[in-house]
Amino acid sequence: MDRYDVLVIGAGPGGYVAAIRAAQLGFKTACVERWIGKDGQPALGGTCLNVGCIPSKALLESSEQYHRARHGLAAHGITVGEVAIDPAAMVARKDKIVRQFTHGIGGLFQKNRVTWLKGSGRLAGEGKVEVIAADGAVQAVAAGHIIIATGSRPMPLPVAPLDGVRIVDSAGALDFTAVPARLGIIGAGVIGLELGSVWARLGSAVTLLEAMPEFLPATDRAITALAHKEFKAQGLDIRLGAKVTAATAGADAVTVAFEDAGGAQQATFDRLIVAVGRQPVTDGLGLETVGIRTDERGFIPVDERFRTSASGVYAIGDVVRGPMLAHRASEDGIAVAEGIAGQHCHVDYGTIPWIIYTWPEIAWVGRTEQALKAEGVPYVSGVFPFQANGRARAMEAAQGQVKLLAHAETDRVLGVHIIGPHASELIAEAVVAMEFCASAEDLARIVHAHPTLSEALHEAALAAQGRAIHI
């Protein structure tokens, strides 16, 4: 039986990072991964690299380029001929990027001497794991420390069963080789909005059916209002309080029945995407063999050092409570490996950035204004619109704003919320500021280059103190 110091089950952004960091710390490390790629070959990277973060951003970028060529260049005095889209080529580009990154992880494993055990991992008692290969062969291995990093999967919706053709999940939506004339999406959260944006830019009439009465309830209300208005202007038909009761796939279309404030409704689409959230992958792991019980939602309870109730067994990323985000999982992976090595082990979940990669992008960190009100925290707000930002105007991308929230008594930054161009990049400054316990005045006194988009955050900090210059 092969023995390892650290064995990681799962090679997504949490698992492969944990394995690499453990190896860097001198542990004999192995990582178990069962994923089979589109080419039929074993692949590393989990959901994020194969059917999540990376491929979806590749399609978002392709669709943005197409939309810009058709609608955004005239304002710059640029005239182009007939612009066409080849969805199959777009998907092929996406697949190429995925292969490059998944193969790259294999190279990182070799560089750091991490052993890849191909197959499914299952706990088989204290310090033991069974690796079941695709052909059914079973390999028994032992490890002093076992890290569960099996991630999450799309949450099923019983009233809309997937058929892989007309009704698909978020992974299936990444492989359309033709633009559906009518696209329905169940769920208007992050995944639904991003996928809807891709296909709307390419010409689909997109309808999002959201059961919740509020749009993006976890987002700051001011940002949500701007986002809803912008998406509506782009042609996204977002129907709130729309509870789907049935979805039936036919040979040529999908019929969806739903209920909203107007009563029973029906709609017909060429394709339907089910994007109602994700759930942890904790079934079939043999947790019972070491006495681990999941909570009511299937998550594995852990302490501040990611330790489960079983000695020597840890859990990170989407299988434990917290934001289901790739960058959170990666930080969990580094922290748990360093904790095993006896080092400091901490991830500040209060300063994890959230991003929606639509256009304009939406990004935020920290608390929202509605949360501060509910908690009775005294605060001040500073807002600066991109309309007043020179770089944004030069880019023809002046939609949105930056909103900064600071404590009314200490001036400490409590939250930053952005909707606008490259919000995903701009939010990093806010994260750093909050990690270093910065005040609004700190940000206001830092020199920001001109002309840049980052000046909008500078002005929002000034606005929080009642001394904005350019509004």
Model description:
By secondary structure, the protein is α/β, with parallel strands linked by helices. The protein has twelve helices and 22 strands. The chain has helices at residues 15-24, 46-51, 53-71, 87-112, 190-201, 221-233, 326-340, 369-375, 390-394, 423-435, 440-445, 455-464; strands spanning 2-9, 29-33, 114-118, 120-123, 128-132, 138-148, 152-154, 167-168, 182-186, 205-210, 237-240, 243-249, 254-260, 263-269, 271-274, 278-280, 313-315, 354-356, 361-366, 379-385, 401-407, 413-420. The strands form five sheets. Strands 1, 2, 3, 4, 5, 6 and 17 form a seven-stranded mixed beta sheet that branches. It has a five-stranded parallel beta sheet with strand order 8-15-9-10-11, with helices on one face. Strands 18-19-22-21-20 form a five-stranded antiparallel beta sheet, sandwiched between helices. The longest helix has 26 residues, at 87-112. It is globular. The mean pLDDT is 97.
